[in-house]
Specification:
The structure holds 2 protein chains of 2 kinds. Chain A contains 15 helices and 23 strands. The longest helix of chain A has about 35 residues. Chain A is α+β, with helices and mostly antiparallel strands. In chain A, the strands form 6 sheets. In chain A, strands 1, 8, 9, 10, 11, 12, 15, 18, 19, 20 and 21 form an 11-stranded mixed β-sheet that branches. Chain A has a 4-stranded antiparallel β-sheet with strand order 4-5-7-6, with helices on one face. In chain B, helix 2 runs antiparallel to helix 3 and helix 5 packs across helix 8. Chain B has a single domain, classed as MetI-like (MetI-like fold, Orthogonal Bundle). By secondary structure, chain B is mainly alpha-helical. In chain B, about 75% of the residues lie in helices and about 0% in strands. Chain B is elongated and about 75 Å long. The chains are: A alpha+beta, B mainly alpha. Chains A and B meet through helix 1, helix 2, helix 3, helix 7 and helix 9 of A and helix 6, helix 8, helix 9 and helix 10 of B. Chain B: Belongs to the binding-protein-dependent transport system permease family. Chain B: This is Peptide ABC transporter permease. Chain B: It is a multi-pass membrane protein. Chain B: Its main location: membrane. Chain B: It is found in: Cell membrane.
């Protein structure tokens, strides 16, 4: 800290510092100058000493754990919990502002028609039952009869229709373009008529919070009436959110009557956990080695995956990202041998070890571990020699002995873009470049902003990411029909067989049938976008684990594999949470 | 201490000592930048987050990169940028200061106006704006810093030249029909060179600190460049979790380099300034 203070003092004095120094050079001041600089040295040495002591103490505490301070902490707080899981800000409580765009975000104060269970099956939440017609164009829902808003009024079919009409008209927060119209058969039955089959409609059905038609307005954020297990008692932007149990909640009563969210940064959350003021604190992998008395590090498998997108077309084309006209294609990554060599040559375990300190696992597709994951696409990787053979067979050889292979005078080199403010992707890019060098492929890493990446991302490799509790991202990342829309299918990948499976998956009438086609799109025995012999337009590398320090004795229920984002992912199972001792 | 005869050699000796320290530091940094194995800056060069040891003098970061190598590379980058930007700033100061003093009233008015304007904008904000407009990277940093540090030196140069302007040899030269450019180059520049040298050396530590500040704030290099500011911003969040070496050593070395050079600047001034040199 001492360093920072000195630096800042120099900055604030800055414009005049230089001038003042010169004004001091009058003869009568000549003895002052050396003394002053001696004082500066003394101050600097003192500051260094302070920093060293503080740092030493911090190290000692970090390594030994603070025994003294946590002895007299309460083992639990009864029916109240304080959690620090990051800043949960963004679209507060109103789907028109984006509430519901992150997995499990709505589960506390809202309910939705469907929800995911611990096996990632879509089950009824507000809807007690639902069915899909044979042409997959009509979805019928029966609402549960005991659902109440937090003010005691019943939740009706009109509320459901109001919610979806409002969001469809808005059109920016949730994709409901495939939705034709809705009708209420009576107070508790709703039919959704679709323009085209969409088996992934379940994702919107489980993400969109149902709003009260009578009480929804521009001030809804300040007074969010919902039908979830909790109601908002207090919300201070950037500081805290306090939730209290909703007496009218239709489901299993949660054990905790009050939840306090503290919006703390990573290091502040760790400090709060040390001080015993929070029961759950999130932790980045770098903090995972810390030991805190009375708390245990819990690690949860997630679908939050990271990958490289590799342009599949040769350079020279043009395409669109959102509204921008951009260059498309890369002569090196367009060669399937390059993509395959990277796919089988990169060592995913080692990458996870380097960038996540082991708190992650290899990924072979966008959807590892989910019901629509095809287990045939996992394979043994890190096979440097096989990768080199693939390159050699395709004509890539290192003729000039510089460690990088060439073919027809072109070196196997490309640029890998990553967002500079994202530590994980930045580290990932570095680790990939390092391993690719061993295969004879020169990868240059380049930090950029997302805006910059969207402009250059179709002609270069990008550190990409994804992971949802629904398979629609597969369609967005691999179907040739969505090329040039949004930032879908960045590599401009086209495979007619894969396209066929993807369309069949979308128009399936049950989730089981849809899953079958999602799996075939990954690998059907002959072709596919994933797997050892797949097209590898996107090379999936790792899935991160979510890490939390949790007070001993607090049971977090049977967590499903968690969705993207550590802020809300834990709360799918909130009603099951309880103290075990 | 008491007589001027004592002071003179002491001033010289101090200067030599300071100069020796700076030369040694710079030589170490440059040699380190050239000799240290860049492989130490790759991921998994050592165990991640290991504290300082004989193998890794400054410890390692979360990817296992050697912090000593990264710090030395960061310092040599800082020094290179420092020399470049301080030189550019000094040239700008000299040109504008001389122009203001020699080339008539309206040039003086214009230059003074520009100086007042630039000096009035908060320093760091001005730099961030410039770096942002240029688009980050080395050009952004060099321009951002070079264009914000010349003002005070320009004011001093202007004042000095105004003094020289009325000297007799200047009047004679002008009377002989010499052009203002000739006078500026042949008569004025040699006389203000010592002032410029002091200004350059004193600007140097300042410029280095600002380079670190800009990169700390994320307006400089891409995050994999081993610049001191980036090392500091990477290390700050880890101080509270006990990994103090990530921020302390880069900060400490930066502080030492900056103090050494600032000291040198002070001593050069003491020796060169007629008011204090007694020589």
């Amino acid at each position: 800290m001492g360093l920072k203070i000195i630096t800042i003092t120099m900055f604030t004095n800055n414009p005049f510092w230089y001038v003042q120094e010169h004004r001091c050079t009058l003869p009568q001041d000549e003895e002052i100058s050396p003394q002053k600089s001696r004082r500066v040295w003394l101050a600097a040495v003192a500051a260094v000493a302070v920093v060293a002591v503080v740092a030493g103490v911090a190290t000692w505490r970090g390594q030994s754990g603070d025994d003294a301070s946590s002895q007299d902490q309460p083992r639990n707080r009864g029916t109240e919990l304080v959690v620090a899981v990051g800043d949960v800000a963004g679209g507060e409580f109103d789907p028109l502002k984006g509430w519901g765009s992150r997995p499990a975000q709505i589960r506390l104060i809202h309910s939705s028609l469907l929800a995911v269970d611990k096996n990632i099956d879509f089950v009824g939440d507000l809807a007690s039952d639902y069915s899909v017609s044979d042409d997959a164009l009509t979805w019928s829902f029966t609402l549960r009869d005991n659902a109440r808003w937090s003010n005691g009024e019943p939740v009706t079919a009109q509320d459901v229709i109001f919610t979806y009409e409002t969001l469809k008209k808005d059109g920016t927060r949730f994709d409901l373009t495939f939705l034709d119209r809705m009708e209420a058969r009576d107070g508790s039955h709703v039919d959704f008529h679709l323009k085209e089959p969409r088996s992934t409609f379940v994702s919107q059905l489980s993400d969109i919070p149902i709003l009260p038609a009578k009480h929804y307005g521009t001030d809804y954020s300040a007074n969010p009436i919902g039908s979830g297990p909790y109601v908002v008692a207090d919300y201070q932007v950037g500081q805290q959110l306090i939730l209290e149990a909703n007496p009218n909640w239709y489901g299993q009563k949660p054990q905790f009557t009050k939840l306090t969210f503290l919006f703390l940064g990573e290091d502040a959350a760790l400090a709060a956990a040390r001080a015993g003021t929070v029961d759950i604190a999130y932790a980045p992998p770098a903090f995972a080695g810390q030991r805190i008395n009375g708390m245990t590090l819990q690690s949860f498998e997630t679908v939050d995956s990271r990958a490289l997108t590799l342009p599949t077309l040769p350079a020279g084309g043009r395409g669109k990202i959102r509204t921008n006209d951009v260059a498309v294609g890369n002569d090196v990554t367009a060669d399937p041998a390059i993509r395959k060599a990277l796919n089988i040559g990169l060592d995913r375990d080692q990458i996870a070890q380097i960038v996540l300190q082991g708190h992650g696992r290899p990924a072979y597709s966008l959807v590892d571990g989910l019901p629509w994951f095809n287990e045939q696409v996992a394979f043994e990787d890190g096979r440097t020699e096989d990768a080199k053979r693939v390159l050699a067979d395709a004509g890539w050889r290192d003729a000039d002995g510089d460690g990088t292979v060439e073919k027809d005078g072109r070196k196997a080199e490309f640029t890998l873009l990553y967002p500079s403010d994202d530590q994980l992707r930045s580290d990932l890019a570095l680790a990939v470049a390092e391993q690719a060098r061993g295969l004879g492929i020169a990868v240059t890493t380049k930090g950029s902003t997302w805006d910059g990446i969207y402009l250059d991302g179709k002609a270069n490799a990008v550190t990409w990411g994804g992971g949802r509790h629904h398979p629609h991202q597969i369609y967005e990342m691999y179907s040739s029909k969505v090329i040039d829309t949004g930032y879908n299918n960045m590599p401009q990948y086209t495979n007619p067989t894969v396209d066929g499976y993807l369309d069949q998956a979308l128009s399936a009438t049950t989730q089981d049938k849809a899953n079958e086609f999602w799996k075939k799109a990954q690998w059907d025995g002959q072709t596919g976008f994933a797997g050892e012999n797949g097209d590898a337009s996107i090379i999936w590398l790792l899935r991160l684990d979510h890490l939390y320090f949790v007070r001993d004795g607090l049971n977090l229920g049977e967590q499903p594999i968690q969705g993207h984002g550590h802020e809300w992912a834990l709360f799918n199972t909130l009603v099951q949470w309880h103290w075990t001792s | 201490m008491t007589t001027s005869a004592d002071r003179k050699p002491r001033g010289r000796r101090d200067l030599l000592v300071s100069l020796g320290v700076v030369v040694a530091v710079v030589a170490c940094v440059v040699a380190g930048g050239l000799l240290l194995d860049p492989a130490q800056m790759r991921p998994s060069a050592g165990a991640p987050l290991s504290p300082p040891s004989l193998r890794h003098l400054f410890g390692t970061d979360h990817l296992g990169r050697d912090m000593f190598t990264r710090t030395v590379h960061g310092l040599s980058l800082s020094l290179a940028i420092g020399v470049l930007t301080a030189a550019v700033s000094t040239v700008i100061s000299a040109v504008l200061g001389i122009c203001a003093a020699l080339f008539g009233r309206w040039v003086d008015g214009l230059v003074s106006w520009v100086i007042d304007l630039s000096i009035g904008i908060p320093h760091l904000i001005f730099m961030v704006l410039l770096a942002f407009v240029v688009g980050g990277g080395i050009p952004g940093i060099v321009l951002g810093i070079a264009l914000t540090h010349w003002m005070s030196l320009a004011l001093l140069v202007r004042a000095d030249v105004r003094q020289i302007r009325s000297a007799e040899f200047m009047l004679v030269s002008r009377g002989l029909g010499r052009s203002p450019l000739f006078i500026a180059w042949r008569h004025v520049t040699p006389l203000i060179l010592p002032q410029l040298l002091v200004g350059f050396v004193l600007m140097f530590p300042h410029v280095i600190l600002h380079e670190a500040a800009l990169t700390f704030l994320g307006f400089g290099f891409s995050p994999q460049t081993p610049a001191i500011g980036i090392l500091l911003s990477e290390g700050m969040p880890h101080i509270s979790s006990g990994m103090w070496w990530l921020a302390v050593f880069p900060g400490l070395t930066l502080l030492l380099v900056v103090l050494a050079i600032a000291r040198l600047g002070d001593r050069i001034r003491t020796v060169l300034d007629p008011a204090t040199s007694h020589g």
